[in-house]
Amino acid sequence: MTQAKPLRVGMVGYAFMGAAHSHAWRTAPRFFDLPRTPELTAVAGRNPDGVKAAAAKYGWASTETDWRRLIERDDIDLIDICTPGNTHAEIAIAALEAGKHVLCEKPLANSVEEAEKMTVVAQAAAERGVLSMCGFSYRRTPALALAKRMVEEGRLGEIRHVRAQYLQDWLSDADAPLTWRLDKSKSGSGSLGDIGAHSIDAAQWITGLNITGVSALLETFVKERPVGGDFVGLGGHGGSDGPRGPVTVDDAALFTARFESGPIGIFEATRFALGRKNAMRLELNGTKGSLAFDFEDMNSLQFYEAALEPDAGFRKIMVTEPSHPYTANWWPTGHGLGYEHGFTHQVVDLVNAIDAGEQPSPSFADALQVQKVLAAVEISADNASRWQNVDKEAS
Ligand code: SOE
């Protein structure tokens, strides 16, 4: 058996996303036949002990304490960026200019201006065969990939309504600590960019239609939070008496939207929906039928086909059949997948695209479009929900 050529990966950052990406790089070649075999060559992080511990835990062969060193190394083919948004542009641009492929976590950047620069550099790099992708991992959830396939097959007819919610509750405790996700200078925005960006990307990708304008509302319910405290998962509990610092991002984002060629949409992103843990939901109503997805029941898709059963309501498709996207490589029918599989599928698609010399999806240009919608939402919210066209948005 011939050994596939390696794809030597250098990852920057090793927290939640770093762990998910490490798992994906390790797992992808074990379940999918890949034309190149990912190697976990090096991981970078500023804290020497932290990065060594992460390398040992997640299986990276070496460590660096400066991401620039990763980019200088000639035994690395691809840079995987799993750091907060304020670092994405600098790392991605340096990596692409040095001839390394790039996988960059979402949202692509913290501003349209940064995302535009990254896109220009990515497009020039692609002409030299150096490829890049933004990590909107939910595109690789089998049920959402099936939803896209069904829309493309015309099963819904013309789309009229897009209803997207991304509901979490990990910030509901007013004493949850002030983390980087609550600091605009690091994260760019709050619920809007962290989770709303996923909904925007999924809605545009599945319908094949861009959002052209929005009217928005942003709210920060808890304006100050404890500095430090016990982190649990993404939130946790800080002291109620100690020093507090300002929350500089939105806790919740709501907006209505128009899509090109007709559909209208309503979006909600919040970390205060008590009881909703990771309810990334999307419902589409078309002229022939409707589809509904909820990540909390991620192995299924609800489908209503008006012509077949006008009075029967939605039926549930278990998205665990070998004929469904990505599922054939996993377990027998009915044995579902989890959150981590989206990241594994992302690696599979990226490695295949790199080997074929084709642009992976979503490209930085696709992610720039999401960034423009995020910016338009913020402008509208700053202007008492005034209608804001996405293409007129100021960078
Ligand atoms: C936190 O809200 C978060 O981890 C996001 O940052 C991820 O992108 C999403 O997949 C799950 O929630």
From TrEMBL:
- UniProtKB keywords: NAD, Oxidoreductase
- Does the record bear Oxidoreductase in its keywords? yes
Which positions fall inside the GFO/IDH/MocA-like oxidoreductase domain? 146-291
The yes or no answer to whether the keyword NAD is present is yes
Show where the Gfo/Idh/MocA-like oxidoreductase N-terminal domain sits: 7-130
Pfam families in the record: GFO_IDH_MocA (PF01408), GFO_IDH_MocA_C3 (PF22725)
Fetch the PANTHER family from UniProt: BCDNA.GH03377 (PTHR43818)
Return the protein name. Dehydrogenase
Species annotation: Paenarthrobacter nicotinovorans
